[in-house]
């Protein structure tokens, strides 16, 4: 049984869609137990309205609301009785295996950082590892938006974390790692990417070189390494494209149409995983509907069950940042 | 009559598709004359094969080929008898109004820089202004890939150039300028974008603030300001979306499908304009087919006719880089 703590008040359409998503997740997955953290009476009323009487959901009273613009660290300090902080605190106590919130993503990140703790000192903020669609197969994007202005060595750590993610979660053997850039040649792009290219050549990943925006869409790499800034632009463009496509064409009832919807609907991805933490913290989309929440709970359980966080941490720990390339000549 | 010089050997499928595109462009547009620059006998043979006997095309002998990996500046110096350099040199002499190549884009940029010259000293390299599709209407992206690691003030110059482009070419009054970023708030994103945000507030453009990847797709801004690096990723993702859509669904024969194809097919865009030059230099797509070349010739003529380059230069010249914000107190 995998236990997933879920912030009942997180997201633009909470708590109704959160409760509905939780019910659907446990009804469809006998191995998942959801701990709904929120105002007890309201959450229980919501469950009753849906006629849920099973034992797949526990409610933990956490009445404080968290606004989308509240200062992340202040939320952790002052809003200990919020659903968001409670669902992370329960994981810290070992009572759940994963924590999910569609609420204030900065506050979720701060809660995970301060309560679960970093597994290492490589990242200023835990990079966001996100499953994204391509024309071919789902791939992992790191970082989808936590960091900015990274050093080249940090991009290498993204590559290592992303590879461990793709191997563990998808079972891709030796996932192909591409550095998102503006040309294939190694001297292309911003200075930090040129430096990262050189470092990636000798990093313990299957580095296939630079990939461009079109290669990303075509699924040329299994792991896309990118600054958090560019990764965020990419992620939101992918969402925008799906949304536009649906507005223009609706659901196309052919094999291709069903394949497109299954992979490109960002709700199916469920949530993004914070990497480099001692635990499993998932950020779901702010505008999640019930389906997105259901999928977020499912992927949270899969992340926890397949041990993605542990594998990422193990790989990152194996890297010495300043390993000498050669024995010193004078030794 | 607008005269467009076209590099007959430029592009992956040259010269056949280039000659065909030129013929189609002049057959459909009585006001366009194309000067095809390439190996004379080969080009004339190509025209004969297509049965073209009109007087809309002149051939200028320029026999030297330019490889895709040749050093840009060396091309300008050593390959003066190439189609690429010749089509820019003809503009310098006032014999044509615009120059188009689908060949080595670095060499095309160097030819334009060295032969036509910069209109000002604001840009290290002429930014690429590109018409891109959205869910709503075509918009201008600056820079689509010429520069990297720009200063904040350079991004402001992109905004000014892009606004002049959108006003002159599309007739958009007071085009909405969006800064491509990873959040709406002004303190979001890389340091250079935070600085650019502050500068854009008082720049002579209709600045609407940060826009995200999804807003870009939805057409929230008329001018997208972005580093050349990010702009290149964006442009190639847009091309990838169209290609993937077509592979999955083909041409969808509905009103929406025809609208999508008309706007999202990157061949329809024709070519991107180099900004901040004393002249009209257009880079067409390396894998252009005959349709893409035809459209590149058409947009080149439109750029020249509507005076985009002149308007961009006028606006850039009006900006003093270090204008004092207030009269000095001690004066």
Describe the structure.
2 copies of one chain form a homodimer. Chain A is of the alpha/beta class and 331 residues long. Helix content of chain A is 46%, strand content 15%. The first copy, chain A, is built from 13 helices and 11 strands. In chain A, strands 3-2-1-4-11-10-5-6-9-7-8 form an 11-stranded mixed sheet, with helices on both faces. The radius of gyration of chain A is 20 Å and the shape is globular. Chains A and B meet through helix 8, helix 9 and helix 10 of A and helix 8, helix 9 and helix 10 of B.
Short summary of the structure?
The structure is a homodimer of 331-residue chains. Chain A is an alpha/beta fold and 331 residues long.
Features:
homodimer, alpha/beta, eleven-stranded mixed β-sheet, 13 helices, disordered C terminus
Helix-strand pattern of chain A: EHEHEHHEHEEHEHEHEHHHEEHH
**Multimer state:** homodimer
Using only C-alpha atoms, the radius of gyration of chain A works out to 20 Å
Major β-sheet strand ordering of chain A: 3-2-1-4-11-10-5-6-9-7-8
């Amino acid at each position: 049984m995998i236990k997933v703590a879920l912030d009942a008040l997180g997201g633009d359409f909470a708590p109704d869609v959160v409760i509905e998503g939780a019910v659907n997740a446990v009804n469809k997955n006998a191995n998942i137990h959801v701990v709904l953290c929120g105002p007890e009476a309201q959450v229980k009323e919501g469950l009753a309205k849906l006629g849920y009487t099973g034992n797949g959901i526990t409610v933990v009273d956490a009445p404080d609301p968290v606004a989308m613009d509240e200062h992340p660290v202040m939320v952790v300090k002052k809003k200990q009785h919020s659903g968001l902080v409670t669902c992370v605190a329960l994981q810290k106590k070992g009572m759940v295996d994963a924590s999910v919130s569609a609420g204030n993503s900065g506050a979720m990140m701060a809660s995970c950082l301060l309560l679960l703790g970093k597994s290492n000192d490589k990242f200023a903020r835990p990079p966001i590892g996100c499953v994204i669609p391509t024309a071919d197969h789902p791939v992992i994007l790191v970082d989808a938006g936590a960091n900015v202005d990274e050093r080249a060595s940090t991009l290498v750590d993204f590559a290592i974390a992303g590879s461990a993610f793709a191997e563990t979660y998808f079972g891709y053997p030796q996932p192909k790692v591409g550095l998102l850039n503006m040309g294939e040649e190694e001297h292309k792009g911003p200075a930090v990417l040129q430096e990262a290219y050189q470092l990636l050549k000798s990093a313990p990943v299957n580095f296939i070189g630079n990939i461009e925006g079109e290669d990303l869409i075509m699924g040329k790499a299994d792991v896309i390494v990118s600054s958090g800034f560019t990764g965020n632009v990419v992620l939101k463009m992918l969402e925008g494209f799906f949304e536009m496509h649906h507005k223009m064409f609706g659901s196309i009832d052919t094999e291709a149409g069903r394949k497109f919807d299954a992979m490109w609907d960002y709700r199916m991805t469920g949530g993004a995983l914070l990497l480099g933490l001692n635990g499993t913290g998932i950020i779901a989309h702010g505008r999640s509907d019930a389906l997105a929440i259901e999928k977020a709970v499912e992927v949270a359980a899969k992340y926890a069950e397949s041990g993605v966080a542990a594998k990422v941490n193990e790989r990152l720990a194996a890297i010495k940042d300043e390993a000498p390339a050669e024995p010193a000549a004078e030794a």
